[in-house]
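[Discussion] Sanity-checking designs against the backbone

I'm trying to build intuition for which residues belong where. Below is a structure token string of 221 positions. I'd appreciate it if someone posts a full sequence so I can compare it with mine line by line.
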């Protein structure tokens, strides 16, 4: 019953301070001024039309359409609008900020980020729900991740790399709990992550992935 309730709840739409997420209209205006070809190269997506682009997100193709000012996903061979403010906001931030730097394939923790001080208090990475759900079930954790396109790592009791965006891989390491120790979960980043996302968008990306791992495979997009 608990899993059913989680699936029926709307996707998170709040900022770290619990304020409702609002997507600034000028973000779409700024995106419409960018060259889709350049965006496709830097963001590692593909051009869909003269002014729209497809970017992979958690193993799914998401269309950013500046003309209609919305994100769309392909369902039953039709592109349908996505009503998910946090995803829309973080998606636009990625497209507006992604740089030319390639991945270094070097894992670092949040404490090694230049903006490490940001991830405290209300800005703590939202991983507690994952520990509650999967802390004693690493197999289920891995299965949920593989539905989202994750690939295995050889660490901890369960570990994998999952690409939120093409240039924003997240590395999850779970140590299963037992009678003596509580379960532990670490999220690591590629050293280049701050080249493509500011700190608040990194927080938002982890929140989106947490939600996806809890809902997998019943995603709202």
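Best answer:
Here's mine. Compare freely.
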């Amino acid at each position: 019953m608990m899993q059913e309730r989680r699936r029926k709840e709307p996707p998170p739409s709040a900022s770290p301070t619990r304020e409702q997420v609002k997507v600034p209209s000028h973000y779409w205006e700024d995106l419409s001024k960018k060259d889709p070809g350049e965006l496709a190269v830097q963001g590692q997506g593909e051009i869909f039309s003269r002014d729209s682009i497809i970017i992979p997100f958690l193993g799914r193709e998401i269309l950013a359409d500046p003309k209609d000012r919305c994100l769309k996903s392909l369902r039953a061979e039709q592109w349908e609008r996505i009503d998910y403010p946090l995803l829309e906001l973080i998606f636009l931030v990625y497209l507006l900020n992604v740089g030319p730097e390639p991945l270094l394939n070097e894992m670092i923790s949040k404490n090694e980020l230049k903006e490490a001080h940001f991830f405290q208090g209300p800005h703590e990475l939202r991983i507690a729900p994952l520990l509650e759900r999967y802390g004693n079930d690493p197999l289920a954790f891995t299965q949920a991740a593989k539905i989202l396109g994750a690939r295995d790592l050889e660490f901890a009791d369960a570990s994998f790399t999952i690409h939120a965006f093409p240039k924003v891989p997240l590395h999850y390491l779970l140590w299963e709990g037992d009678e003596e120790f509580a379960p532990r979960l670490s999220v690591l980043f590629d050293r280049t992550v701050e080249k493509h996302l500011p700190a608040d968008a990194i927080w938002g990306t982890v929140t989106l992935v947490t939600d996806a791992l809890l809902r997998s495979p019943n995603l709202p997009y």
